[in-house]
Amino acid sequence: MKKILTLLLCSFALAAQPPGFVDELVGSNFDSPTGLTFDKNGQLYAWEKGGRVYAVDKSNGSKRILLDISEEVYDYLDHGLNGLVLDPNFLTNGYVYLLYTVDRNYLLFKDDVSYNTGNNDKFAATIGRVTRYTLRDNVLDPASQKILIGESIGTGIPVLMDNHGMGSLVFGADGSLMVSSGDAAIARDPPFQEGDAFYDLLVERPLADGIITEDQNIGPYRSQYLNSLNGKMLRINPENGDGYATNSFYESENPRSARSRIWAYGLRNPFRFSLKPETGKEDVSLGEPGSFFVGDVGWENREEINVIESGGGNYGWPYFEGITYRNELFNDPTYFPENAIAPLVEWRGDIAQAFIDGEAFGIGSPEFIGEPFKGNSSIGGLWLTTDHFEGFKGTYLHGDYEGWIKLFKFVFKGNPFEVVSIKEDVHPVGFAEDPTDGSIFYMNFFFPEVHEVRRLYSEENPNFPPETEAFIEPINGAAPLTVNFDASTSSDPEGQPLSYHWDFGNGISSSEKVAVFTYQGDDEILIRPMLRVTDAAGKSTVRNFKVHLNNFPPEVISTSFQQFTEFDNEKGLKVPLTAVITNHNAAEDIFYEWSVILHHEDHSHLITSFKTKEAEVNLAPIPCDGQTYSYEIKFFVHDNTGLGPTISHFIKPVCEADRVVLGLELSPNPVEQGINLKGIDGLDDKHVRYHVFNTHGQLLRESEGVWKGLKRGLNKEIETYIPGVYILRVMLDGSSQSFRFVKN
């Protein structure tokens, strides 16, 4: 039902596009898709965050696996296989380059006799890698792996946080390989000190492992530090991973050092970037790979489009965000950028501006034409190189994850002068231009429901594709298995008559709207039926399905989490994640995935996930600020064909007692330097216990003692917190009360 609603919503959104633009679904049979690209012949390739690479049929979204390195890839929150690029001579040499975060368990113990793929060490320090694989016999040969960055634990790109890690891979005009990486740090100053929450995870462990050295233990300042690979754009030789002698900070005695590889620095999370066509020089010895347009994801204040035109530039993070915003939190003079380069475009909240000839102009001004826009995650984009979209050749297409796609027009001097909205209410994470016709394919991914490949193309008088709503049942069982195929609720936006083509996945088909087919056979096999719905003008939409013949899903007998329906918000709740499961084939591999999601109003946040048989999660108190909150635990258990149930269960934090139990008041709020509690006589001399959580439910600090002494340490701690929302829970005489406070 959710997929049907998604299709309906997409049909309404189509009308918002400029005349001639059509957006259609190509395929939705992906798991956390993060990017896509084309070879020069127009073959589409896509990759998933979990570590799988596919060749994709761009007409219907069907996919063929080329590589699966999911055992090696650290698939957690923002991390995973984020970047992929084909060699400029891919059709001749078959080289494919990958950028991903390495699973810590794999990194440390792969060659150990005690190595166990079931171990899952989430939120722990690891590294990012750049590797190369070779296409042989229509697959990427695992044995062909060549590591260019991260051949050992001390030579990788440090990953110390659960977000802003690996970015993209792009070839320069000169054949050099450009690599982007985030700062992988919590925005705070000073960096983590002994006694801080997560000090062991973020400092002691990576130092002991050799992931970072002591001089790199400087948090976000690593973006400014030339001995660190974090917060950078790198330029390396795609054959050996060395830096080039024409890089600004090259060290001839050590071509593999961080300095030798750095092309630009002072970036926070440069997730996607692209080469502007017809820039740069082919001769790699000249050190002119071209102009790169970078989507740098901001922190609290600005989103950016940066332009990197030459080597050695400093883009200001963490001291600066956007064109002029100064982050006062960061004031260590050691790393201060004296000549920080401002972004070309910035936005966040009510601010959307372009930087033109040294001056900022707001959206809607004569200098920067367009409608006001917002956003909070600058993904990146690409340049349109053809006349496929009339009037838009040579314009720059960019996306924001929260979520839009826009085109930016430029004057001959390279200054932006107009922004045009192409698509709203989408969540793009990667774009690619089809070299055969100039249409744009993009990944639309939003956890947990949206996993799509979509296509933007041009039509003079747009005829929108059919809205395909269909189901098949049953999807598994013993042969003979009779399956019902029903597309009767499909429709056409223009009201045209529709034709139907069911491919039952075995060479037999039907043109009926509703069909029935019986599968025969003794083997346990996976069959992939397909439906194509076509309107009178020849426009089609394709849906893909699975039928599991002679196969049965694992059965969940019971789960540990379903005993909980609510909990006292003051106390939080520790939930064991276990399940009793039976399967018809005892020898079959079973896979597990637990997800914990916090819902409030119209927002959902993935708190954590586990791919182990058993786990444990702490459901932290929520702010009790009048919104409706609930935690959802989703358990997906399946065999290697993806057959299996998903158990979803909601647990509600109960807030009624939060407002009345102790009768305390917190002031001031927002907090500048410290907080105070009042409402109980003699509170300073009472024995109190407290916890501080962030909005993701992570425990930041806890302590117990006489309140007069405790609050001094608490306020000293709060001074180090980055601006944002926090929750303070106070326990006194067997009762408790929670407060939501804002740190400025």
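Next protein, fold it too.
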Amino acid sequence: MKLFHDKGLGRLLLYSSLLACLFPLLNLVLIYPRYQAHLLGGIKEEARKVAHHLSRMAKVEASSLRIELSREGEPFLLQDFGVSKIKVLDQQGEVIYSSDPKDIGTVNRHDYFQRVVAKGQDFTRVVEKEERTSDGETINRDVVETYQPLMLDGAFAGAFELYYDITHHRAELNRIYVTSLFYPIPMIILFVVLVGYILKRLDLRTEQWRRDQQEIKSQHTALLIEQERQQHLLVSVENAKQQWEATMDRVEDMVILADVNLMVRRCNRAVAVFCGRPFPEILNHGLADILPGFAIDPDLTADMSFEYRHEASARSFLASVYRIALGDGTDGFVATLHDQTAMKQMTAELERKNQEILASSQGLQRAMDEISSLIQRVVVQEDFGTYFQNDFPVACYEAKSCDKTDCPCHGKKAMRCWQEAGTYCRGERQGKFAKKYKSCAECDYFKAVTADPLNMIGEQFNNMMRVLESKNKALQSAYSELKQTQSQLLQQEKMASVGQLAAGVAHEINNPVGFIASNLSSLQKYSGRIVEYIALEAELIGEAKNPELDARQAEGKKKYKIDYILSDIGDLIEESLEGCERVKKIVQDLKGFSRVDQATRQTVDIHECLDSTINIVWNELKYKARVEKDYQATTPITCFPQQLNQVFLNLLVNAAHAIEKDGLITIKTGQDGDYLMIAVTDNGCGMPPEIVSRIFEPFFTTKEVGKGTGLGLSIVYDIVTKNHHGDIVVDSQVGQGTTFTVRIPYDQKLREILV
């Protein structure tokens, strides 16, 4: 079982016990020697005083030392001074007088006598003397010997020697010392027990304190958690309060919260600003003190609104009062005051302006009627060039004495200079009215001619019409571009649909053409066998030598034209087979031309694309011109084949349309650096430069109405430049022909990155 829970208290009890046990040793080592030294020191001092007093009784002469002391007075001297023996010694240490006659004549041979006393210094020592009693017993006594030198003219002449018996004092001191050694033991035991008890109580209290501290710590932790939660809640509430106060302070209306006694509890910043007081001078003050004349019935139960006039500032407010329940269980009021002074002033100003407007209503009505008719004309006739007619008595250059003859207004009467760009007003060129309105508004001429409201309204209407006219032109231009774009999209959609339809038709035609060709081949074989059979039959009839059969056979051949049929049936079948091959080739070219299943880039031989396109448009070409091919390109190109087929189709059709008859169309390919070059040349009518500069514009065409959309070359240009990042060049001479040169880069991906 542990004596202490706290090891430090156990060590403290051990150290206290050791310290208590060290007390007697401390008494032996320190206290007793000091006490003994102090006692002996007192006795020695007393002996010196006695020796000094007795030295006055000695008479020192030049030749001898003489003591005048009677034997009768000696006992009294010894008794008075408390000494046990008195001696007088001469210079050599011989006793010349002693209270004990036996000592006379003896010599003090101790070295301290010559070393200390003979040099005129006092000397005291404690010695133990043996004495015999009258009964013959030997007694040890503690004696203090004191030597007092006698001087004559500064020279040593002799000395007094006194004996003090301190045996009784030493015995008493030893008894006290022994008593002091054993007497503290019960006290030490009591001290140790008391310290142990106190430390045990302290240990119990410390352990209880430690348990209490742990409990307090756990409670403190819980309190900290709760405090942190409360702090967060408090911060949230404070933030909400600050946000609400900041919100209320941003409200321009005055908001006041008062209790049932009409004492201000809270208010927003607008109240402090209006009253010119800090919040402490407003809060907890009467509502009537900060807003004189503002009265609320304390018994008010329904919301109310009224007009409040602040006489000091001559401002009017729309006041609203609401009764609410405060958080402390009492009722209060919320009052809001909305400043309507400016509104009232504005109302008064509006009334004044209204009177002025009414005074000039006839002129304004005329202007409005005229403007209404102008607007009606704009709406009905869509005439955005309609303007209000104002008559200006003098021109701007005359009014301002302007000598800028190159100014657009110079020399022109009634010129609206503020609507003209490039004028020299204010010494520098001005832009349009919208950009120089500030300068014009400060111009004396503008102020003069627009001083009349009618003129001002008219000019504002004219400015609006100019803006509408400009916007209308921009809208028409945008609408035209939109129509062009829509037509191009429709044309491309049509081409895509045609391509899809062509692919479908080609697929559908391909099957019947196949079995027709197969049947014709079989028919060709069958017709050969029939011809052989008829020849065999004619040979057999001839061998029969029957004139009647010969006549009938000759008549049948003549009637059914068998000889003609037999001679022509082979040619018919050959032509039919040739036609099937022709149809098959056209179908394959048509399918290759449409390429509906190749909407992405493909690596193709450009010559195949050209040949398939030529086959497709051959019906357009064969009656107009010959086609010569000069294919020199050897590297395939990655492109959109269907789109390039459309480009070649449009170029070949346009070349055919440019030729009246018996013309020549040359198609040449080659490589120009990193570009594939395709040139389509015709020897047709050619084009003048003014037409060449416009041929790629959407809807531009030189054909008759209904024979061309004007989108063919526009689509060609978009496909070459935008979709394939190439370029197309036209070289045309009137009466000599035209050459379209298309250049397409081989590396389409690099061109896309660069673009």
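About the second fold: The chain has 21 helices and 19 strands.
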